[in-house]
Design brief:
heterodimer; A: 231 residues; mainly alpha; two-stranded antiparallel sheet; 69% helix; globular; B: 251 residues; alpha+beta; 3 helices; 8 strands; elongated
Amino acid sequence: MSSESYGQIAANGLWHNNPALVQGLGLCPLLAVTGSVVNALGLGLATIAVLTGSNMVVSCIRNHVSDSVRLPVFVMVIASFTTCTELLMKAYTYELYQILGIFIPLIVTNCVILGRADTFASRHALLPSMADGLMMGLGFTLVLVLLGAIRELLGSGTLMNNMHLLLGELARNWTLQLGENYRGFLLAILPPGAFLATGMLIAGKNLLDRRLTKRQTPLNDNLIATDARAE
Amino acid sequence: MSEKAAVNERTAVSEKKAVSNTTATNSLAHSVKRGGLVLWLYGLLATAVIAGTYLGTKEQIAQQQRMARERALAQIVPPEHHDNDLLADSFPLADHQLLGHKIPAEAYRARRASEVIAVILPVVATEGYGGAMNIIVGINRDGTLTGVRVLSHNETPGLGDKIEAHKSEWITRFDGRSLSDPAPEQWRVAKDGGEFDQFTGATITPRAVVKAVYQSLKYFSDHRGELLIDATLSGDLTLDITREDGEGEKP
């Protein structure tokens, strides 16, 4: 049982082991609900709730569940959290619930959640598991929202349209509009656009990673170069 | 003597095997039982949590659904025009298949001072590009449309979804129309020789909506009598039902 620092847990969830861009998990909701920021944020928050909750419960019961029924019990925990989240969304964010439709109950099939439950929460204590769930969920949500922003801006010419569906009446006027007569780039809203945008995000992250590692080892490069010249 | 010992030994070995087999079977059975018990316990716990959340949110959910319904209806019959609670004044549609429904559907009456001023009919447009569309149509007492709204559909985003009120004002062009305005042959999309515009790149969707609205107008004119029942309560709480055609039944 390795003990990771909270900083490592955060860095992993948000960047190095990002569920969407690195692990490539949960791509179905990622591609389907990121047509707008409010949809993406809504589903992202629901996923964080389920992920954190299930990680916490799995961590608590990790020593009280026999090996043969581990996975069924974990799935049952995740499914329970998903159902409760769905009921709460139906009760308090009804219009968003209607828009997200089937993708709320489909959170249970998001491999990130069962993956984290099995690889992390079942081997770590309560607080680290909670942190891991939170950070993985946050990493996933950040990608969701970024994609949602790109696709909404390109596809509909707006940003944060209909935010009041999630955040209440206060957020009704948060919409930014990209000019009056923006006709909309339809491809961005349809699935192919989602695939393309996700691919570009992954490429962008890899590029950044490479630049960052290069920046950390310029001294070595110089030494190697000098050695080469000396020969 | 050695043979007896050998036999004893063999018996002992086979007994041991039998015991270990039984132990193995026992421990398998034991582990299955234990696993089953654990699953059952967690299942019980999960059910309790879900049931609790369900009961806790039941009221709120029912209210949300009521409000969503009211919001949808208010778009075609504004609240200022009627004084009754639309949701309380709902009634089952007779001959619901005529309006595309597979299961019985609820329609609504809007009243002002007990007189029915408008009727809201739920219609299913079955010939949409992406399948069935749920539409509500408001029709005034005189047969003119108060408004039409598409509640749900599977049409193509960016092409067919212009039937949504917040995507374009196309759906508001039905306001004020009736069976005679335009004439029956004109109750089609322009491509079919009618008066209603279709969308660039999407003809099937508007065609289906126009057809559904026309069907609802025809239904209204055919079923006027049952739809426009005015109910008035006299002093001693007896119900006088006056029909459109003047034939009244007084108890």
